[in-house]
Specification:
Number of strands of chain A: 8
CATH superfamily of the domain at 144-217 in chain A: Ferrous iron transport protein A (FeoA)
Oligomer: homodimer
Largest interface: A-B, 18 and 18 residues
CATH class of the domain at 144-217 in chain A: Mainly Beta
Strand order of the largest sheet of chain A: 3-8-4-5-6-7
Helix content of chain A: 40-55%
Number of helices of chain A: 8
Strand content of chain A: 15-25%
CATH topology of the domain at 144-217 in chain A: SH3 type barrels
DNA sequence: AATAAAGTTTAGACTTGTCTAAAAAATTAT
DNA sequence: ATAATTTTTTAGACAAGTCTAAACTTTATT
């Protein structure tokens, strides 16, 4: 059994491993958990004793198979709760994160499996992130950042890189939601902004936005 | 904001006040939380500083208005989650308690209000206990223990005094569920057992059972 | 009313998780 | 290759919440 603090560390390491393969260093974990490197050092020793991470002093840390499975299960719970909040409780996609951070620590296998069934076994959360199955496997879809599309290419919005409520509300305001079809009309060399077509409307998108929106090319 | 530990103490005091009016003593709290009197003493000082309880050394403790409201809100959350588990996730009434103990500490007003709406604003939990409203008011129904009924009196099962899964499973086995009509046929002076009629079936009920089942007389 | 018993509080210790400050190791720059 | 810088770890402290053991109040008994 893991404490909430331990679960948060596992989740952080899991997310860091998914973007930067190779041992995860102390500072990166500290930054992602808004804590201090010394606290990370302490906690990593505990996680190492519990055999969920491999750790060699000064050499960073990696999840063991048990660690990966444990972390994936927390992510699974987080994302299922997010779906629940949006689908059943009328939360908007920019409101779910903080509540799901709490709900992900609830311990009950039956609860999460029944929740999964109630929601119709969803495969992705409201931000387009895949939901790990009971064994921790994730079914990644082929996506790329909007910024990488070339002129005339088209695709469908399938996810976001930044889940902050500021960004999500911005997308709402622009009418950009998951499932919408986008065509790149023009790329501006000057500031890397894009001119896109969405809902038959032409709009201009900054590079920052294009670098935080995932597209499945079509 | 209150910690989980603080919330558990408030809830315990709230429940104790509802049965034994007057200042609640340290040992009673310790017993109900399966902790030691010294821990209770420490915590009560903190709760007193936070102005949710009135406390005079050696004189027991009472909830302030703020304390009552806070505690009622936790009970509200607990009972709404129990309804959710039974109605939406197919839990049985003997499985919900431990999970609801965890869920009751989730902090989100929107979550609990939307949950209330999803469930159709239920007034009672799966054990027949009333659900406090947003202001902490509870709508108590007129109920009495089965053991207090006289011969030939009839009533409807509306609640249980003991929510342990052992007792609830026993009731399931006997076919006694909330809403069922019961008629007292005979009371045995020897062991205070009852002969009752339920679903047109005659059965014998021990005094222990009769003292843990609530009836609304009809 | 004095004493015994029961209940309550305090003192000091322990665990978890955090922090700051300082020491040690690794990396980068010259 | 040595010095400077960055990163990581350790040492020591703190807060929350708990415990045991001892001291102190209150209540019950005689």
């Amino acid at each position: 059994m893991f404490s909430q603090a331990e679960e948060n560390y596992l989740k952080a390491i899991y997310h860091l491993e998914s973007v930067s393969k190779g041992g995860i260093n102390t500072n990166a974990i500290a930054k992602s958990l808004a804590t201090k490197a010394s606290s990370v050092s302490d906690m990593i020793k505990k996680l190492s004793d519990k055999e969920v991470v491999l750790y060699k002093k000064y050499k960073g840390v990696t999840l063991t198979e048990l660690g990966k499975k444990t972390a994936a299960n927390i992510v699974r719970k987080h994302r299922l709760w997010e779906v629940f909040l949006v689908k059943k409780l009328n939360f908007s996609w920019d409101e779910v994160h903080d509540v799901a951070e709490q709900l992900e620590h609830i311990k009950s296998k039956k609860l999460i499996n029944q929740l999964d069934a109630l929601l119709g076994f969803p495969t992705h959360d409201p931000h387009g992130d895949p939901i790990p199955d009971k064994d921790g496997c994730i079914n990644a879809i082929d996506k790329c950042l909007l910024a990488t599309l070339k002129e005339t290419e088209t695709g469908v919005c399938v996810g976001v890189n930044d889940s902050s409520s500021e960004f999500l509300q911005f997308l709402d305001k622009k009418g950009i939601t998951l499932g919408k079809k986008i065509e790149v009309l023009e790329k501006e060399d000057f500031d890397d902004s894009l001119s896109i077509l969405i809902d038959n409307k032409k709009m201009s998108i900054s590079n920052k936005i294009a670098n935080n929106l995932y597209i499945r090319k079509s």
